[in-house]
Design goal:
This protein is about 35% helix and about 15% strand. The protein is of the alpha/beta class and about 475 residues long. The chain folds into 2 domains: about 40 residues, no CATH class; about 450 residues, Alkaline Phosphatase, subunit A, CATH 3.40.720.
Length: about 475
């Protein structure tokens, strides 16, 4: 079906009358676009993308728990001279603290115990924990001044993934699926993986609302791939049920659902029909895409020794590349364990080792296959870590509490200027002193790279035109755009 017709036929009466005034204008506008543009994706909204996108797809490597920017990407050499002195109040400025450190009598400064060296034409500083990431300094843009209002994990990760600290909103991937639609018929538009980790074992929980559809129709939620058993639950037919029998069952079920759809016009009924059909197609497409036996030895070695262990970050990165090749719109990988309140010396190196080589390999693999130019890659967490130590401090070990005022991420690929460092923090990696980037700005930038004006992508919910980026005057980060 033509995507414009499909969109308007699945509207409820309330949506239809609420949007009737703009409907004719939108239909007239879409009729002016070339037919091949409209057929590039299934689903999606008329008129989106709003402008020519630099990226068609995106991969988000999310470090859940908050990586320590001071120990990885935000080098602060002057801290060595201030070891174990108190954080000046002029720097803290009465900032809210978590209950984990608010009762401390002191806030002793903890310089990073890890060595930093410069790389690339930009001269970006990288920790010794990220030797492979450092090799692609000229391929990525490092942003050191991302900030957020949230100071605890659950509201912070919900905030950056859905645009609001409270549950119930649609995730970034759901917004992309809703606005842009899918570029393939046999795989979901939005896929999520939650690999294993080797750092701190007591990691923060992940909730499916982080990849949920919230108030959007449920067809736009992410599909989570499992590392054991069927990649997707109930993918295999039960004993005694053949593929032909499953096809007949689906045909009968779809006929019932089609009657319901014609009687009530509920888009969720259409969702059930489409999801049943997608599940049937995935019975062959998902096993094929998760079978790594066809990958060359050189490719497997590039991703590192863990790539052939199901459920690892390395295996997830390789699967992400394979999905991008099949035009999956958005892949998000949540790597847990980045919550070093103590024992940074023991846990952080393990976390970095999990992700360093696979992240580099993913970018290089995309680059070598000609996919990086139109694939956006994002690496980062939900906030940063404090310059002062939580608990005991020594030159060899320390811990860091949550810090929302500044943290570092990197981006690469479609729409991003490579080989730059954007923004600057103070000598304590505590406050932003140049080019602040709010997490809404970050999400606006991601949408921009995919051809979406974040102010024009909204959904009416509870009487409001809700956006991923909120109601504030946020902007894409022009300084990192190619």
């Amino acid at each position: 079906m033509h995507p414009t017709q499909d969109y308007f036929q699945t509207l409820t009466r309330r949506h239809f009358f609420g949007q009737m005034g703009m409907g004719l204008g939108t239909a007239a506008l879409t009729s002016m676009f070339p037919q091949q543009t409209l057929q590039a994706a299934t689903g999606g909204l008329p008129g989106i993308p709003h402008f020519a996108p630099k990226a068609k797809r995106a991969i988000y490597l999310f470090m859940a728990g908050a990586p320590s920017q001071i120990d990885l990407l935000d080098y602060k050499p002057k801290l060595d001279e201030l070891y174990d002195t108190d954080l000046p109040e002029s720097v803290r400025q009465g900032q809210r603290l978590t209950t984990m450190t608010s009762g401390q009598k002191r806030f002793p400064l903890a310089p990073s115990k890890f060595k930093f060296t410069q790389h690339g034409q930009s001269g970006a500083w990288f920790s010794e924990l990220l030797p492979h990431t450092a090799k692609m300094a000229d391929d990525i843009a490092i942003i050191k001044t991302v900030h957020t209002e949230a100071i605890n994990h659950d509201p912070a990760i919900t905030y950056i993934c859905t645009g609001n600290q409270l549950p119930g909103r649609a995730s970034l991937g759901a917004w992309l699926s809703y606005g842009l639609g899918s570029m393939n018929e046999d795989l979901p538009a939005f896929v999520v993986m939650t690999p294993s980790w080797t750092g701190r074992k007591d990691a923060q929980a992940l909730y499916n609302r982080l990849w949920g559809s919230g108030f959007l129709p449920s067809e736009y939620q992410g599909v989570s791939l499992r590392s054991q058993g069927d990649p997707v639950l109930f993918l295999s037919n039960p004993p005694g049920v053949s593929s032909e029998m499953r096809r007949r069952m689906l045909d009968r079920l779809n006929s019932f659902n089609q009657r319901t759809l014609e009687s009530f016009g509920d888009p969720e009924t259409r969702t059930r029909i489409e999801q049943a059909e997608m599940a049937f197609r995935m019975q062959s497409s998902v096993p094929a895409i998760t079978d790594l036996s066809g990958e060359s030895k050189a490719t497997l070695e590039k991703y590192g020794p863990d790539v052939e262990k199901p459920g690892t970050f390395a295996a997830s990165c390789l699967l992400a590349r394979r999905m991008i090749e099949k035009d999956v719109r958005f892949v998000q990988i949540f790597h847990r364990g980045w919550d070093q309140h103590g024992n940074i010396a023991g846990d952080l190196p393990n976390q970095a080792r999990d992700i360093d080589q696979p992240s580099w390999a993913l970018v290089q693999d995309l680059k070598e296959r000609g996919l990086l130019d139109d694939t956006l890659v994002i690496w980062g967490g939900e906030f940063g870590r404090t310059v002062y130590s939580q608990g005991g401090l020594s030159r060899e070990n320390y811990g860091r509490d949550h810090h929302p005022r500044c943290f570092s991420i990197w981006m690469a690929g479609g729409g991003i200027k490579p080989g730059i460092v954007y923004g600057e923090t103070d000598d304590f990696s505590y406050n932003v002193v140049e080019n602040p980037v709010h997490i809404h700005d970050l999400n606006a930038t991601i949408l921009h790279c995919l051809g979406i004006d974040h102010k024009r992508l909204s959904y009416k919910f509870q009487g409001l035109d809700v956006r991923l980026t909120g109601v504030e005057d946020q902007h894409p980060v022009q300084g990192i755009l190619a």
